[in-house]
Every structure is written in C-alpha cells, then in structure tokens.
Design brief:
The strands form six sheets. This protein has a seven-stranded antiparallel β-sheet with strand order 3-2-4-1-10-9-11. Strands 5-6-7-8-12-13 form a six-stranded antiparallel β-sheet. Strands 17-20-21-22 form a four-stranded parallel β-sheet, with helices on both faces. The protein is built from 19 helices and 23 strands. It starts with 23 loop residues before the first strand and ends with a helix. 31% of the residues lie in helices and 23% in strands. Strand 5 and strand 6 form a beta hairpin.
C-alpha cells in the first residue's frame, strides 16, 4: 500500500538506507479446526523482512470478522492473549513497510470495511498508480474515507461493485478492471478467503495446501513452510481464487497481460529459502555473485559480504574467483527497527548499530565487499569507511544487481529519482563518492542469465514501465534528461470511470 512521497531528510525521521524496500507481506489461511490466528502470526514472522512498520491479523469465525493491528513488529503487536481471543477458521495477515506519507494506525492493515451487513478485511501488497483519481470519484459519490491509502480505495471499490453485482467475486473482478499498478491482495469475510493478483503479476502471491485439507496463500513460499503447507502453484496474474466450505474456486478477474514479475524479488526482497519457478532465491543470488566475478574481476585477498542479504552473492563471487570468502562484518541481529532517531548524529549511528567490522579479519587485506545492491549509497559509504578504519588496505565494492537508475511506482520506496546514486553519477563518481578503490555492478544481461526464464519488470534498471504511470505519480519524480516510457498523457485518468464501469456491470448482469 502506498502514499507516494519523497523521503524526508531533515524531519528527524530515519535517513534512507542503501536498500530498496518492498512495502509489505500478505498471508491468508482457510483451515477449519485449526488455530488460524496463531498460524497467521507465525507466517507473518516468516514474512517480517518484507515490512517492519506495522502488523495486523483479521479472523473470520463464521459470523463476523475481528481485526487486531498496530504499529510495530509482529512480536510487539501480538501477545499470546491477543491470539487466544481470535478464534475462527479463516484469517488474513499483513506486515507493512511504509514510504513517507501514509503512516499511523489507519495505514496499518488489514483494512476493515463493510458491505451492507458483511464485514471484510483486506491485506494488500503493492501500489495502485491511479488511486488518486478513483478516490476522488468515490468521494464525489459521497463515499467516506478514513485514510489516504490505496488499500482503502480498493476496499471501497470492492464494496461499491459488490453492492451492485450482488456477489463479492463480482465486486473484486470489477475492481480489478478499474485499478492499475502492481498488487497482490488477500481478503477475508466471515466464512471465506479470497486472493487475487494484478494482471502483470508484478507483486508475488503463492498458493499452498495443508495436509488436513486447508489452504494458505502468501507473498512467499517461506510462509508456506512455517505453516506446514505444501506449495501448489502461484496465483495467476488476473486470477481470483475463493476458498470456503464449497472448496477452492478460481475465476478470471481480468485479462492477464504480459508477465512482469518484480526482478527485485530475486535480487533482494524474498528470503533466500523461498522458491520461485523451481529455484531457491539463494541459488539465484549465488549465481549472480559468480557472474559478477566473471564480469568484474579484481585482485584481492578476501571476499566479504554485507550481511545478510549480500552473503549468497559473496559466496558465489568467492567460489568463481578463487578468492577466499571470510566474515569481515558482524551483524547485530537483535536490533529492531528504530522509529525515533532525533539527530543526524544518532541517525549516522544506525549502520554501526547493525554492523561492525572485524579488524582481526580485514586488517592488512585487500577486500572485495559484495552486496546485493547499491541503491542510494548512504550505507555503502559508511561500511567502506568502517572497513578502512579497521585496517583494510583496499575495499572494492561489487553489486550483485545492475545500477538502479529509475524510480519504482509499483510498491517499492524509490518514488524520486534524485535519491538514486546511479541516476546522478557515473561509475567513477560513484567510486569516489563511496571512497572505494573500485566499484562495479552486475550487468542486466548477467542478471537475467542467473534467474529462471520468465517475464520481468525491469523498470528500475531500464525505465521500461509495464503499467502506464499517471501524471500525479511521475510529476517532478524524474531528473532532467531522463525520458522513461509509458507515461500517461496529462489528460489521461483511469481506464474507465465508475459510471462507465457500473454501466458495464449492468450489461453483464
């Protein structure tokens, strides 16, 4: 979910780190006779890497839907007593990373809404690029809003079309034809679970089967594993599934379009033990590191990773190059997300709070420092300095991702191009900015040689956006001289108005 805005630099908020952030993880379960609230809790802990700002669980017990959500990590939001007070047989959960803007309790999910006397709870991963236009139309129709999130817009649209089509799946299908962007959504009502995905398949969503006949859906397969579910398949782009006492039903919500899976799921977002297209992300990242060693070799004494996300690529780089792999940086895994960092000095301490160099390992050595990506350069600069202060004689920075030069509008926190180091500097300038002895990035061709053949969104590398971007999103977001494709003309709003959609619904009815 999103409220697109630039990252505040001087507000006392944490300074942006050198990673891209996906905005959330979603999970859903239909399992009569099981403790679905507790299953969802553990699944969200498995998905915690996808979002640390807020967490929530909604449970349907056959009569109503109960939601518990709050700001903080999953373990901070839910106590054992909370979970014990949420009995039911169907549930959905959400953990959120938010860009600047849509923050606070109302932005936490699942989003609770009503359709006549039916309560629904919606969990959403992604960004709807046309939600501003749709929200204005709904407000003009006297439909009230409690927040400025695209998730609430989706919930209100589903309610609007369900009231007119008299079936929740009809409401979801017509909503899917209205909304544009990247999304994976899970919805519960008192007696059923729904899951649906954008027609390009930008945001991930998988289906798993429990041994006792129950079903789960999740952003990644690691959440299936902790639930004891067996992977069945991905939810297809444009597909709606409904799970209830009637079993699993699938129907086409909207026409599938050219596949555009987010490539950064492979580079960084997904956990290494999650699986996509028959391959673990660990193995893909190991290949990326090996390919990087072929493309950007360097004479050095030791390969180290920026833990933990850079470790698979660093291992691959070491194996391919023949340079020993070692542990040069120690990660403090007990540091939770810091919400209040009131001074620039304290903000700069953030990296040292999470990472510390091992002088006994790096002293007197020429290092290859491998990370999964170098996006803004803020963290990389501090780590290079830290390693040289610890006695490293050289630090060669290697990124297992191509240069990120374009902002993302589909659920990643890079709305402004001026935040991206590769959009502002050439390779030598980046090397100088990072105070490194050399710097290199994996080529786009090299990246695609390391992942399963599929259709991918590579807009962050190429500026080729699969979904047309409206002016409200792209205005003032690009640097001078950059000309991306697929920008909507100034006059273009949504693909159809709500009135036109309602007329179409009447014709189909």
């Amino acid at each position: 979910m999103s409220d697109p805005a630039g990252v505040a630099q001087d507000s006392g908020a944490p300074e942006p780190d050198d990673k891209l952030h996906d905005e959330c993880g979603v999970f859903g379960v239909w399992a009569p006779g099981r403790d679905v609230a507790r299953m969802t809790y553990f699944a969200l802990r498995a998905l915690q890497h996808r979002g640390q700002e807020s967490a929530g669980i909604a449970v349907g017990d056959g009569k109503t839907v109960l939601v518990r959500k709050d700001l903080g990590l999953v373990t901070q939001v839910f106590s054992d007593a909370d979970l014990a007070a949420m009995p039911g047989h169907v549930a959905c959960g959400h953990c959120r990373y938010g860009t600047a803007g849509a923050k606070g309790w109302e932005a936490a999910q699942p989003h609770l809404s009503t359709i006549n006397n039916v309560i629904i709870a919606l969990a959403h991963n992604g960004t709807l690029v046309n939600f501003d236009d749709l929200r204005r139309e709904l407000i003009d129709m006297a439909i009230p809003f409690r927040s400025n999130t695209d998730s609430e817009v989706a919930a209100k649209l589903i309610g609007y079309f369900t009231q007119r089509g008299h079936r929740l799946r009809t409401g979801i299908a017509h909503t899917m034809r209205m909304i544009e962007g990247g999304y994976a959504m899970v919805l519960v009502r008192e007696n059923a679970l729904y899951a649906f995905r954008d027609p390009h398949g930008i945001r991930p969503l998988v289906l798993g089967r429990l041994g006792d006949g129950g079903w789960v859906v999740a952003s990644e397969t690691c959440a299936l594993d902790i639930s004891g579910a067996t992977f069945v398949r991905e939810i297809e782009p444009g597909e709606i599934i409904r799970i209830s006492d009637d079993g699993l039903r699938s129907e086409r919500g909207c026409r599938p379009l050219t596949p555009a899976n987010c490539i950064f799921e492979h580079v960084y977002f997904s956990r290494p033990d999650s699986v996509k297209d028959g391959s673990s992300f660990y193995l893909m990242r190991h290949r990326m590191g090996a390919r990087l060693a072929q493309e950007a070799p360097v004479e050095a004494d030791l390969v180290i990773s920026v833990p933990d996300s850079g470790t698979p690529a660093a291992e691959g780089f070491a194996q391919e190059s023949g340079i020993p792999f070692g542990t040069g940086l120690i990660k403090n895994r007990y540091v939770a997300r810091t919400f209040i960092q009131p001074t620039p000095e304290l903000r700069q301490m953030g990296v040292r709070l999470k990472l510390n160099a091992l002088p006994d390992v790096v002293r007197g050595k020429r290092l290859v420092m491998v990370d999964d990506s170098v996006v803004r350069g803020t963290t990389s600069l501090q780590i290079v300095r830290m390693l040289k202060e610890a006695g490293a004689t050289e630090v060669h920075v290697r990124s297992a991702s191509p240069m990120v030069t374009w902002p993302c509008f589909y659920g990643i926190d890079t709305a402004n191009q001026d935040q991206l180091i590769a959009a502002n500097m050439d390779l030598e300038q980046i090397r100088s900015r990072l105070e490194a002895d050399s710097v290199a990035f994996l080529s786009t061709e090299g990246l695609f040689a390391c992942v399963p053949p599929n259709g991918y969104c590579t807009a962050c590398f190429t500026g080729a956006y699969p979904v047309q971007i409206p002016r409200s999103f792209y205005e003032e977001k690009f640097l001078p001289g950059y000309e991306p494709n697929n920008l909507a003309p100034a006059s273009k709003t949504s693909q159809m108005t709500l009135v036109q959609a309602e007329e179409l619904l009447g014709q189909e009815g």
